[in-house]
């Protein structure tokens, strides 16, 4: 009786209304349209009209979903953050904090190698964004329907709580690495995060156009240097910026 009851329980996707599913499918279709176009041209050269033609919606509908074309890039980041947090949480048990971070970098590097322009467009967008380069990754804006339709194989993706920034992606596995002794107990997590961010964004800038296939191995190489530096005590030093702008530790 209990097994039959469990089998009859509706899945989260089945509980969604048709309106919720339609909204999510349209939003995801517009995102897919822009990622396909970025294989051929720059983001600035992609028109809203061509995206709407591919997704089979009107331009008025587009702006109901994305008030600015650049909001598509924010949406891409939000979905990436959800997916990577899910992957990190599920790999930390077997791989530990450091292994989970390396898996996340490897996964991202494979995506960059396949579609190098996307990461460069995202970096340019964040660098020029009026929010002072902050990563626009507030996943609270991603609906349940969007999560389930984009990631149907990621069981529990709907339970990932709202997060806002790459800190929320990499801070938990870094803390786990310190807790388990893979990194020294005195490691300053903020310093370690800064090192990871430099690698995360810097490697694609240096390698994506030179040879996208090198992104993953260079990620691995640079992460090895980060771990070595933190284990040697480099993570105990916090950099401060005094009023005159000169850096000190």
Structural notes for this entry:
The protein has 249 residues and is an all-alpha fold. The protein is built from ten helices and no strands. Helix 5 (71-114) crosses helix 10 (215-231). The model is unreliable at 1-9 and 244-249 (pLDDT under 50).
Task: Outline the fold blueprint.
Layout: H1 2-8, H2 18-37, H3 48-55, H4 59-65, H5 71-114, H6 116-128, H7 144-150, H8 167-179, H9 189-207, H10 215-231
Helix pairs in contact: 2-3, 2-7, 5-6, 5-8, 5-10, 8-9, 9-10
- From N to C, what is the helix and strand string? HHHHHHHHHH
Q: Percent range for helical residues? A: 55-70%
Individual helix count: 10
Radius of gyration over all CA atoms, rounded: 20 Å
Number of E-state strands = 0
Q: In summary, what is this structure?
A:
With 249 residues, the chain is mostly helical. It is 62% helix and 0% strand. It has helices at 2-8, 18-37, 48-55, 59-65, 71-114, 116-128, 144-150, 167-179, 189-207, 215-231.
């Amino acid at each position: 009786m209990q097994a039959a009851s469990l089998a009859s329980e509706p899945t989260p996707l089945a509980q969604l209304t048709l309106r919720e599913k339609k909204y999510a499918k349209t939003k995801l279709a517009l995102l897919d349209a822009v990622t396909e176009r970025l294989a051929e041209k720059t983001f600035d050269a992609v028109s809203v009209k061509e995206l709407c033609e591919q997704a089979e919606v009107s331009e008025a509908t587009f702006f109901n979903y994305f008030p600015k074309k650049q909001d598509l890039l924010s949406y891409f980041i939000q979905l990436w953050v959800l997916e990577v947090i899910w992957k990190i949480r599920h790999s930390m048990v077997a791989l530990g904090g450091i292994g989970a971070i390396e898996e996340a970098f490897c996964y991202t590097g494979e995506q960059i190698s396949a579609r190098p322009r996307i990461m460069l467009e995202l970096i340019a967008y964040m660098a020029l964004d009026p929010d002072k380069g902050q990563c626009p990754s507030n996943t609270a804006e991603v609906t349940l329907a969007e999560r389930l339709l984009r990631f149907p194989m990621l069981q529990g993706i709907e339970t990932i709580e709202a997060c806002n920034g790459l800190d929320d992606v990499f801070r938990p596995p870094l803390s786990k690495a310190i807790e388990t002794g893979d990194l020294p107990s005195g490691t300053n997590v903020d310093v370690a995060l800064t090192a990871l961010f430099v690698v995360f964004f810097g490697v694609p800038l240096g390698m994506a156009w030179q040879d996208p296939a090198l992104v993953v191995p260079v990620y691995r190489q640079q992460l090895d240097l980060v771990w070595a530096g933190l284990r040697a005590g480099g993570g105990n030093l916090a950099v401060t910026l005094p009023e005159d702008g000169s850096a000190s530790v």
